[in-house]
Amino acid sequence: MSDRTTDTYQSRNAVHEQFLDGFGTVRVLPLDAAADAEVIHRWVSEERAAFWGMIGLSPGDVADIYAHMDTLDTHHGFLVLKDGEPAALFQTYEPAADRVSECYEVEPGDIGIHLLVARAGARGIRPGWTSELMTVLLTYVLRNLQRTRVVADPDVRNVKAVGRFLRQGFTLGPVVTLPEVDLPDVYLPEKEAQLAFLTRKEAFPS
């Protein structure tokens, strides 16, 4: 990464910043649809990200999707940095304002999440790396935002994502069919999803 790019990230305000001993510093930045479109497009265009449904889109298409999300009060996108380098795409949403609400009983304090972790790249594969990153993100949503339960809805075929949530302590719920969404600004095909839940007490028992 060039110094110019690093400086650009450093100048942006984070909604959450946390240092983990032996891991590094994680910063959670509100997604800038225009500035971050190139890196997000690169990630969602990889075959391993097929379940995100964005393969074949242009960087402009990706920018448009997140520019629309930025107009919503209920859905939010974030660029996650680890020691100044882009490491993940993180999204939060209000389940009551999402199609998932048609598939389970939403409780007060629920918050939904989606997570796409970048390839290991130069850092190499390190066991537990994603778990530590998720610990920071769970700290943000469960402690900083004071939510009481996290809801995840990965595609049931995405066994890696389902396994990741299980290793993080999530409890599996039912497999559900998320209905198609066909609106002028948003299209989401029908999806078979594996619901998973994690409460604040389960994530942070002490």
UniProtKB/TrEMBL annotation:
Keywords linked to the UniProt accession: Acyltransferase, Transferase
Pathway membership, UniProt: Siderophore biosynthesis; mycobactin biosynthesis
Coiled coil (residue ranges): none
Residue ranges of domain Acyltransferase MbtK/IucB-like conserved in the record: 29-77
InterPro entries, per database record: Acyl_CoA_acyltransferase (IPR016181), Acyltransferase_MbtK/IucB-like (IPR019432)
Protein name, entry field: Lysine N-acyltransferase MbtK
MF terms (GO), sorted A to Z: acyltransferase activity
UniProt cross-references to Pfam families, sorted A to Z: Acetyltransf_8
Function noted in UniProt: Acyltransferase required for the direct transfer of medium- to long-chain fatty acyl moieties from a carrier protein (MbtL) on to the epsilon-amino group of lysine residue in the mycobactin core.
Domain of life: Bacteria
Organism, scientific name: Streptomyces niveiscabiei
